[in-house]
Write a structure and sequence with these properties.
With 615 residues, the chain is of the alpha/beta class. It is built from eleven helices and 30 strands.
């Protein structure tokens, strides 16, 4: 073990010692200024001036300027703070006036409230309100970072060796492997994160105390055959190492206890790393991320304290880095965006390696942790840790109908667009409904976390990520104006490298999960105005749609009669419908000044992918 190995760390002397410097100005950030509340169709549009150093903002609302002001709960089931303005309050009742205030969000929570602004939602008119998307096709391009396909989540990898019949009579191992292949080929996913590297079927302890990784070998051999790379989550605790061998979670009884012997935990992490190197090669393993534990800030996943987690992390990272400094290790892999600042502070104070910070959130776009990671780099002189959201999704709740809904598709795009500037990875949880945690799927559409159903039918969320991956070339600016611009309706546009095609991905969604079934007041007409085209040139226009009537596989199932599981005929019809068809729209011809325009409808919730191709 290295000089600073687990065996040589005087851990107890550290507990309770406060840091002399905070990485962020927690509690010192000013309230946002310039808050406005614009009366809009079906919502109130809020905007404010961003505050330097804020991780996000918590919107408050009251029935009058006198208060009381309460945080707006958009029913996402997790962190309510949003990463940036603008914000659409679609919970507002049309014709009713509300007073709003906004607080900055830091690692310690909400700060002081801003000055108030008053607004009300307008009722829908006879026609959908308009949003205008303006593009300059000749504008310089910038890279579109693939935050959406760097990583994806999946149930524990040992499902690749599952032999029992699965939900609905499915072949669990075959479908799980097929799902990984689908997200690899159609979304471009490169790495997969799963819980339970140290489950009983993968790792055991021999009589002499050494570790037997034979089960893990079979699992990893099958996984690596997919051409994907693993995120090695250092979890959960082998029974022989646990301080409480009865402290478990999930139907598969994952053991989430602190270790009874911290040196043995270090031995396990070191021996795992050596074993993986011996089997798959040092250079191969050096390209994998190692993440320490899962959501230790929740009692259900950890029976220790935050200090205990810091010890778990430090012992693990020193053990892994003692084998190969190149391996990238991080944490805290926390729920609800918690414990990130505390881990960075611990690593700064005690000179502990940290290559990335990882955390999770659901039902909202991810917060902006760059102020923390930049402060860490400035304080230590070390490289800035990457920011990896290793779990993210539309809901943290198992068996929630939103997971099968169209609502979730524009939600995914909203989160990914927000993450482009602030994160290195936003990993959707999970690829497949072959998922065991709280019980196997009771029916085909049961609100599972998967982008793919049992049987690997593509849900609307899958198509959202697929369309992101279809954007060709470099990104060009898209300017939105109109009713709900940049809050309800958002867009990403690209131009191919040879300049022959222009792709425009535009969506209409809200964070407000009371609108899972949509809202006619939030439907919009999209007018696309493009300049910088070749004067006089003709362009074909193709369209792909995701909404209640397009690429909505659950609606197909309901039209077939629904029920628990399809019969052979229904499976055949579902597989025929499991596609995202391309529609041809009327071609356009650029004016003499190189401009053109077209309009399309965009319901809420809904997505449009438009491709303009020069003939």
């Amino acid at each position: 073990m290295s000089e600073k190995s687990a065996a040589h760390v005087d851990w107890e002397s550290r507990i309770g010692k406060p840091s002399d410097v905070r990485l962020t100005g927690v509690g010192e950030l000013p309230a946002p200024t310039g808050l406005t509340a614009e009366d809009s169709t079906g919502h109130v549009l809020l905007d404010w001036a961003p505050v330097d150093g804020a991780l996000g903002y918590l919107v408050h609302r009251a029935d009058s300027a006198d208060g009381p002001y309460e945080p707006l709960d958009h029913l996402g089931g997790d962190v309510l703070a949003v990463p940036h303005p603008p914000y659409a309050d679609t919970l507002a009742e049309p014709g009713r006036s509300y007073s709003y205030k906004v607080a900055t969000w830091s690692d310690s929570g909400a700060g002081e409230l801003s000055e108030a602004a008053t607004g009300s939602a307008r009722a829908a008119g006879p026609q959908p309100a308009e949003v205008i998307v303006t593009l300059d096709a000749a504008a310089p391009t910038t890279e579109l970072p693939g935050v959406w396909n760097r990583m994806i989540g999946a149930e524990h990898f040992s499902l690749l060796t599952w032999e029992k019949p699965g939900a609905g009579g499915s072949d669990v191992a075959a479908e799980y492997a097929q799902a990984l292949g689908i997200v690899r080929d159609e979304i471009g996913v490169r790495t997969v994160r799963a819980h339970g590297t140290f489950l009983p079927e993968t790792v055991s302890v021999r009589a002499d105390g050494s570790f037997d990784f034979a089960g893990l070998d079979e699992v990893y051999d099958r996984f690596l055959a997919t051409g994907l790379k693993p995120v090695v989550e250092l979890s959960f605790m082998p029974k022989e190492l646990a301080s409480d061998p009865e402290y478990t979670v999930f139907d598969y009884k994952a053991l989430v206890s602190t270790p009874g012997d911290w040196d043995r935990w270090g031995d396990l992490c070191r021996d795992l790393t050596l074993h993986l190197q011996d089997r798959y090669g040092k250079d191969e393993v050096a390209g994998w991320e190692f993440e320490v534990w899962n959501e230790a800030n929740l009692e259900v996943f950890w029976n220790g304290t935050q200090d205990d987690y810091h010890r778990l992390y430090e012992v693990a990272v020193r053990a892994v880095k003692g084998v190969d400094e190149r391996i990238r290790v991080g944490g805290p892999s926390s729920a609800a965006a918690g414990w990130v600042g505390a881990l960075l502070e611990h690593c700064r104070t005690h000179d502990v390696p940290v290559d990335f910070v990882s955390t999770h959130t659901y039902g909202n776009a991810p917060l902006d942790f760059r102020p923390m990671t930049r402060a860490f780099a400035e304080a230590t002189g070390r490289p800035e840790p990457e920011i990896l959201w290793t779990e993210w999704g539309v809901t943290p709740t198992h068996f929630h109908r939103v997971s099968d809904s169209v609502f979730a598709a524009p939600f995914v795009l909203r989160g990914m667009k927000s993450a482009l500037a602030s994160t290195d990875c936003l990993s959707y949880w999970v690829a497949s409904d072959q998922f065991e945690e709280l019980g196997w799927p009771p029916r085909l559409f049961h609100g599972g976390f998967g982008l793919l159903t049992v049987g690997n039918l593509r849900k609307p969320r899958f198509w959202a990520l697929y369309l992101l991956s279809q954007l060709a070339g470099g990104r060009i600016p898209a300017t939105l104006t109109g009713d709900g611009a940049d809050a309800l309706v958002e867009s990403i546009a690209t131009r191919s490298d040879d300049g022959s095609t222009l792709d425009v991905l535009v969506w209409n969604g809200t964070l407000d999960q009371s609108k899972i079934d949509g809202s006619a007041a939030l439907d919009r007409t999209i007018t696309l105005r493009v300049s910088g085209l070749v004067p006089g040139a003709a362009y074909t226009v193709s369209s792909r749609r995701v909404d209640e009537e397009h690429a909505n596989i659950r609606a197909v199932w309901e039209n077939l009669g629904g029920g628990e599981w399809p019969d052979e005929r229904q499976w055949a019809e579902l597989r025929t419908a499991d596609r995202l068809p391309e529609e041809g729209l009327a071609p356009i011809v650029a004016d003499a000044d190189g401009s053109a325009a077209l309009s399309v409808d965009l319901p809420n919730p809904g997505i449009r992918f438009l491709r303009l191709a020069r003939g």
